[in-house]
Amino acid sequence: MLRDIWVRATTVQQPLPTTSVALVGLIALAVVWSPPGYRLVRHVITLVHEAGHALVAKLSGRKLRGIQLHKDTSGLTLSKGRPSGPGMVATLAAGYPAPSVLGLLGAVVLGQGYAAGLLWTMVLACVVVLLLIRNLYGLWVVLATGVAVAALSWWASAAVLVWVATALVWAMLLAAPRSVVELQVQRRRGQGRGSDVDQLARLTRVPAALWVGVFFVLGLAALVGGGWLLLAP
């Protein structure tokens, strides 16, 4: 079975024509920026967001204690170490750019024709994150995501895999700035004062609004770059 998965993951699939990629992007835009669609997509975005925190926490030498995902689509990554300093700042700053980074990497991989490889990599990432989950709802989200992607990658045709992988990459790229907009809306309403940007403001003395702007610009830059990679002939 592992050999079959390896063969599928390393087999090259023909990327979609530019017009089809653009069509998928428009559909993803409509889904991500509509309230009902975004509520559904946000569960996966939060999973990627918290995985970004966890990865950078580990790389910066902090002791990772676990990840929680909640029904309201919020999440929490717990790590142990210095409450301030570069490692803590990097850990806090990693969450919002994480979907953009994944989207950019996904666009590069799709450009090389490895749609199946991208999806199987996502399955592997879900297995790793599953070991870090510390609540039942989070366990359900990661299991459902991993099993769904694995089943699709195993049984779907190559053509379907390319369409799905393209849609997922567009969703990551489009949802990253969308999540920053949502954060700012919540802050204007007096909510989310314990958010990543507010914690960063306390640690760095850089205003939270400036951190919001930085994350939004990074998300837009990734969207432009990733979109160019996806639409390039």
TrEMBL record:
Q: Which key words are in the record? A: Membrane, Transmembrane, Transmembrane helix
User: What would be one Pfam family of this protein?
Assistant: Peptidase_M50B
Is Transmembrane helix among this UniProt entry's keywords? yes
Transmembrane portions of the chain: 16-33, 114-132, 137-155, 161-181, 208-231
Does Transferase count among this protein's keywords?
A: no
Q: Organism's domain of life?
A: Bacteria
What is the protein's given name? Peptidase M50B-like
Q: Which organism is it from?
A: Micropruina glycogenica
